[in-house]
Specification:
This protein is an alpha/beta fold. The protein has two domains: about 250 residues, Rossmann fold (3-Layer(aba) Sandwich); about 180 residues, NAD(P)-binding Rossmann-like Domain (Rossmann fold). It is built from 18 helices and twelve strands. Strand 4, helix 4 and strand 5 form a beta-alpha-beta unit. The longest helix has 18 residues.
Length: about 450
């Protein structure tokens, strides 16, 4: 069995895969024909955010069963194409949470107090206090777009600074927001009220450019913008115009529409702009965590070979809710406990919801996912149960017996993993895998 690693990951986390006899091939910074050649005979692929896995690449990899994303977002993977081909998409939803949230706060504070600019000037030998009068965070309103894992953690830290939190997230219930000390509002309401705005959503057709010309027109004069989520969420041209006309006092960006950021980018060289080179996941702890490529790889082994591996608990089937985690438009929907290796082998791997489903269809899919999970383990009660989707799912904590005449989901997944046909759709033989992909991280 071959697992191709297309992006840089922590080498130590790959050791269990090698110990299990898996052939690990690491070649990074590939694209085009070179990437297709390496994937041609791969059973699994592990990527981070740099490598794009397209439908065309999948078609040229007839053995491909699993794509493991060492990190959270899966916008660099054509998930719809993977679902159609019976390929499981997995991620490591918790690996970057703390690190990205802390980087968001670091940029927030740095922007409020002009720290990078003052540092640069002093390093150049100039003592200048008057040019860098900042603003306090205490008493200011932080607008949070997306209350997934990262958005929630950012909100928690910001409250410690004395900030008032107002947020937009259609998948968070008012009761849950109240428990978190967060006030929910419409997207336009958040834009109009916030002194600082931070975005924590995936990039989809619906969210691309969500902070653009129309949004800036609704914001109060002197607002400050932070984006540590995904490039493309902020319309960079509109942002520069808003800075020039005084609507935006400052901005701090860790992600960009084009990466690496070109040396001649108009975003560079501005005194009221902080830019960092996509450092959201760049801590020792996060690198070790999301090289949950190791976990992803062990799940590859469990899914495709059906062999036990010394992995313990691994990636989650579902998120804690929130559009940052991608509900409907990307990754998350049903908040469930962590699952065992056996359950992962049963097909409950991290996947995603198709982007064009309506609410009723989504509710039906979520019920199916919970029902299947209930047959092999209880959905445990607790704080991670609080999501707006809960009302659609019916009783949350009961253990459900297999429906009469239905195939055990573990059997379905074994059958799916034996099916090596490149054009296999989500039919009866890979129903378990297809259902898993409609569930989420």
């Amino acid at each position: 069995m071959k697992v191709f690693v297309a992006d840089d990951v922590n080498e130590d986390k790959l050791a269990p895969l090698r110990d299990a006899g898996i052939d690990i091939v690491i070649k990074t910074k590939l694209d085009g024909e070179a990437l297709a050649t390496q994937m041609a005979d791969a059973d699994g692929v592990i990527v981070r955010s740099a490598t794009k896995i397209t439908a065309e690449l999948m078609d040229r990899a007839p053995n491909l069963r699993v794509i493991g994303r060492a990190g959270v977002g899966v916008d660099n993977i054509d998930v719809r194409a993977a679902t159609q081909r019976g390929i499981v998409v997995m991620n490591a939803p918790d690996g970057n949470t703390i690190t990205t949230a802390e980087h968001t706060i670091a940029l927030l504070v740095s922007m409020a107090r002009n720290i990078p600019q003052a540092h640069t000037k002093l390093q150049n030998g100039e003592w200048d206090k008057k040019s860098f009068v900042g603003v306090e965070l205490n008493g200011k309103t932080l607008g949070v777009v997306g209350l997934g894992r990262i958005g929630k953690h950012v909100s928690q830290i910001a409250r410690g600074f004395g900030m008032q939190i107002v947020a937009f997230d259609p998948f968070i219930s008012p009761d849950q927001a109240k428990e978190l000390g967060i006030e929910l509002d419409t997207l336009n309401g958040v834009f109009a009220r916030a002194d600082f705005i931070t975005i924590h959503t995936p990039v989809t057709d619906e969210t691309r450019g969500i902070v653009g010309k129309e949004a800036f027109a609704k914001m109060k004069k002197g607002v400050r913008i932070v984006n540590c989520a995904r490039g493309g969420l902020v319309d960079e041209t509109a942002l520069l115009e808003a800075i020039d006309d005084g609507t935006v006092a400052a901005a701090a960006l860790d992600v960009f529409s084009t990466e690496p950021l070109p040396a001649d980018s108009p975003l560079l060289g501005r005194t009221n702009m902080i830019t960092t080179p996509h450092l959201g996941a760049s801590t020792t702890e996060a690198q070790e965590g999301v090289a949950g490529a190791g976990l992803a790889g062990l799940e590859v082994e469990g899914a495709c070979r059906g062999q036990e591996a010394a992995a313990g608990e691994g990636s989650q089937v579902a998120s804690g809710g929130g559009i940052e985690d991608g509900q409907v438009d990307g990754e998350g929907a049903v908040p469930l406990r962590q699952i065992s290796l056996g359950e992962r082998r049963a097909g409950r791997l991290a996947g995603v919801v198709d982007q064009d489903v309506d609410r009723a269809e989504l509710a039906a899919r979520l019920r199916d996912a919970v029902r299947d999970l209930g047959r092999i383990g209880n959905v445990e009660p607790g704080n991670n149960q609080r999501v707006a989707a809960a009302e659609l799912l019916g009783p949350r904590h009961q253990r459900l017996a297999p429906a009469p005449g239905e195939t055990d989901p573990r059997t379905r997944t074994r059958q799916a993993c034996r099916n090596r046909s490149a054009d296999a759709g989500p039919g009866p033989s890979n129903e378990g895998m297809a259902s898993a992909q409609r569930c989420c991280v």
